[in-house]
Amino acid sequence: MKKIDLRSDTVTRPTPAMWEAMMHAELGDDVWGDDPTVNRLQEVAAEKLNKEAALFMPSGTMANLTAAMSHCQRGDELIMGDKSHTFRWEAGGVAVAGGIQPHLLPNNPDGTLDLDAIRGAIRADNIHFPRSHAIFLENTHNNCGGVAIPPEYFASVREIADQNGLMVHLDGARIFNACAALKRPVTDFTQYADSVMFCLSKGLCAPVGSILAGSRDFIYRAKRTRKLLGGGMRQVGILAAAGLIALEQMVDRLVEDHTIARTIEAELTKLPGLQVPGMSMDPNAVRTNMVFFRLLDEVPIEAGDFIARLEQEFGVQIGCVAGRLFRLVTHYWVKAEDVSMISSAFRSVLESAGP
Ligand SMILES: *Cc1c(COP(=O)(O)O)cnc(C)c1O
What we know:
The chain is an alpha/beta fold. The chain has 14 helices and 13 strands. Bound molecules: pyridoxal-5'-phosphate. Pyridoxal-5'-phosphate binds near residues 61, 64, 85 and 201.
């Protein structure tokens, strides 16, 4: 049975062009700066984001932590959303490894942080207080439904940061999805951030890796932090080769994933027993490659059984967010012709569950 894996875009495997490039990659010791393929990827990425320099990272999690630790001292405070990936899904790294205190603000349903709340969170100079040092923003915003936040918002946060001497980091794990959905070049976003992270390993299909970009001085410090965290890798051009293909060939096609996500969403909306999107989401927010839905309480099936039956009987894999809230993520390996299989799988499981 063919598997249709909608649990995340992290499940993407390399494309044939990536396998080919990995096979023939020119390699060297990247801890010494000797890997030509890594060096090329870093140059291409920096140029694309219009930053002075970039660094290949083993993961987005390490890239965010490296950014936090390269911007902040121990005891500094980092303003971030209570639904941010860094706060929820990165094992508390900024606190554990960085000695940095997250200052949480509630994320609005559109993924933003209230501008007045940001102003209010910035500490005065007082020995009782931690020092506010940076603001972490996320785009697309994963836990707010994969919504794309327009560049104008980042311009407003930049202004507040400049008025208060704060750094801005953009967790742009899926920034190219935001670009595709809003039809804006990536530099429209990156111009407002001191540092930017994006994942090569999600919708862009590379097997491993993220990019951290910023000023030459920031990347110099980040390189030491990456080493400290154990992220200095040797002949890693074998992975960077796939990353180059990701940037060359996989960015412009992301819009196809969004179209398929909306088609799946429209199909699920027709089914009784499901509430789509099933969570509070800004109705005007621009959506990308994620579909959320809730299995209504009146459908007499446990969330775990629902997932298991979709997979075992139809090969359709989906993710559970919490309770009866589920998430589907589209990516390169989910094709338009899979949509009818997905919707009939859902229909079958719902019908046989009753009532
Ligand atoms: C996936 C993700 C990360 C972390 O990336 P990993 O490579 O999985 O460590 C960070 N931020 C956001 C918004 C993400 O979606």
